Amino acid sequence: MAGKVRRGHLLGARRTVVLALSAVVALVLLVTIGVVVRVQSSLSVVTIHDDDRAVSAPADQDPLTILVVGSDSRALEGERHGVDDGSRRSDALIVVHLARGDARVDAVQIPRDTVLELPACPDVGEGSFAGGRGMINGALNHGLACTVAAVEALSGLHLDHAVELDFDGFVAVVDAIGGLPICLPEPMQDDQAALDLPAGEQVLTGTEALALVRTRHAVGDGSDLARLDNQKRVISALVAHLSGEDLTRRPDRLARLAEAVAEATTVDDGLGSVAALVALGRRFAAVPDSQVSVTTMPWQPAPDDPNRVVPAPEAADAFARLGQDRPVRTGSPDDASPRDPSTPSTPAQPPTPSDPSSKGPTSCPPSAPCSC
User: Who is most buried in 14, 214, 220, 337, counting CB within 10 A?
Assistant: First the structure.
């Protein structure tokens, strides 16, 4: 379903990719203050393929496709963020493609409520899974390799690398930088998430920032897709804060930040060293913002459950373009409206470059108490 590209939303979506690679940025900075060994020992490294690709592609492969996973393990202090049932779920799934010659970054966000036939997963160190129909976010409960297999089955792509960032680490990251300055255009309240934030400029603790990212009931229609605006808002605020603060002058804060990121990060064996992450980070840093495009996978309600989604026919084209190293022609990245299968699809337009004067990830009502 095509829609107008709102520049603020496009900017916020682009920054989603930047946040997904913020671990790389922090690790690059950490190298400058000589604590590489501490970071290297904190990284979790796993195998994501069990065949002749058991060792992933080198970080300098050209082009390169990476799965970025934001996970909710609920393993640490789960009672603060939800019921701790011992499970592990992906709360964000983004397929990121770095084009040949590092000329462009295209990314497709996959709704976590996407239903599919999950493939069986051999044991590559995190247990096996027999497969079966389910939501894609549940694959992570059987390991990062299972999530990679599920996304490959959904998209038809081969994923060269995978990076997982745990939400418990997100809390530590925000606290390590002294809190997150943010501007909220309206109050956010959600008793279930222990969230009660006023409108306006404020500094969030790590716990508050995580609650804002995860809340369903304080935004939109309460759906999982409606949370994307809040996620983009927090992401943009974090990137802006990290970009505007010279952490090299605060080695103590930089060390805490990088250590928090490293402890919350799981990578495949091809990215299992600081050197590989630094090389990858430099490649992404070289891509101009105008050449970064992010969209949500075209979707429609699942036939057997309107509260779940399945890929719309247009999704196959979006993923095929990634595999062919071609730009993804999509509508607005925040266009999360379902496609009516009975309505002829309207050709989507390429994303419009973001307005450099845009100040935030979302449009803001004129009555808002701050420029957001």
Answer: 14
Residue 300 sits in a domain whose CATH number is 3.30.420.590
Nearest in space to 69 (alpha carbons), one of 89, 88, 92:
92
Q: What is the pLDDT of residue 154?
A: 98
Both structure tokens of 248:
């090299």
Q: Domain count of the chain?
A: 1
* Rounded Cα distance, 140 and 148, in Å: 9
CB atoms within 10 A of CB 75: 13
pLDDT tens for 132-181 read 999 999 999 888 999 999 999 999 999 999 988 887 777 888 888 889 99
pLDDT at 98 over 90: yes
Residue 129 included in any domain? yes
- As beta bridge partners, residue 168 has none
The most confident of the ranges 7-16, 220-229, 310-319 is: 310-319
Per the domain annotation, does 277 fall within a domain? yes
For residue 141, the enclosing domain spans 7-176+254-323
pTM: 0.71
| Radius of gyration over every alpha carbon of the chain, rounded to an integer in angstroms | 19
**351-366 pLDDT, tens per residue?**
333 333 333 333 344 4
pLDDT for the residue 357: 33
Determine, yes or no, domain membership for 11.
yes
**Residues facing 28 on adjacent strands:** none
Q: Which two tokens stand for residue 346?
A: 């309207």
Q: Check whether the bond before 361 is cis (ω within 30° of 0).
A: no
